[in-house]
Amino acid sequence: QSALTQPASVSGSPGQSITFSCTGTSSDVGGYDYVSWYQQHQGKAPKLMIHSVSNRPSGVSDRFSGSKSGNTASLTISGLQAEDEADYYCSAYSDSSTLVVFGTGTKVTVL
Amino acid sequence: QVHLVESGGGAVRPGGSLRLSCAASGFAFSDFPMHWVRQAPGKGLEWVAFIRFDGVNTFYADSVRGRFTISRDNSKNTLYLQMNSLRPDDTSLYYCAKDLGGGYPQFDSWGQGTLVAVSS
């Protein structure tokens, strides 16, 4: 089972919006609405930002939003802030031999 | 407030064994599935294993199936990962993660991780 494909890096200026993708197959991203997104600051544990494609857990800023079209999920960060600089990983339920597949990770840089 | 604390990591020779533990608090441990996820130094996240809330069902990544065993003791609010036949590519920070509980694997709380280093 291959990892989900994410762009290696994305950057933006404070206040801007950025969107980046997470591409899988019909066995994972495209087949089920169980895509989640995690933020990981350097040296810290991951934090759930979005679950079930587009749902924000309590306490997560509404500047974060998720969506999906076909085999590709996307995370949008609006009103980019310095604190958003981190690595972001998507994950999805998979009906293949592995239960869960993670994305390759996207490093977000705030210019 | 959910609190997950991993322990048991360390340095081990190839072919050796380790048992990781994850002490859980702040939620009804016995009601939720749990997972182990690992991250090799400088690399991305890799899901390792899942266990149902009652311990009846388990699933493993292809890379660890047959070598690792996930288990739990709901009376002690503790999750375990028994790792045998360790290989250098098992070197990682191992996180325990609480499942969201929606029927499909999504992780809403994570510990800080315990480091496993496999080297001769």
Explain the overall architecture.
The complex is a heterodimer of chains A (111) and B (120). With 111 residues, chain A is mostly beta strands. In chain A, the strands form two sheets. In chain A, strands 1, 3, 4, 7, 8 and 9 form a six-stranded mixed beta sheet that branches. A three-stranded antiparallel beta sheet of chain A has the order 2-6-5, with no helix packed on it. In chain A, strand 5 and strand 6 form a beta hairpin. The model of chain A has no long low-confidence stretch (mean pLDDT 96). Chain B is an all-beta fold. Helices cover 0% and strands 51% of the residues of chain B. Chain B contains no helices and eleven strands. In chain B, strands 2, 4, 5, 6, 9, 10 and 11 form a seven-stranded mixed beta sheet that branches. Chain B has a four-stranded antiparallel beta sheet with strand order 1-3-8-7, with no helix packed on it. The radius of gyration of chain B is 13 Å and the shape is globular. Classes of the chains: A mainly beta (111), B mainly beta (120). Chains A and B meet through strand 3, strand 7 and strand 8 of A and strand 5 and strand 10 of B.
Q: In brief, what are we looking at here?
A:
The complex is a heterodimer of chains A (111) and B (120). Chain A is mainly β and 111 residues long.
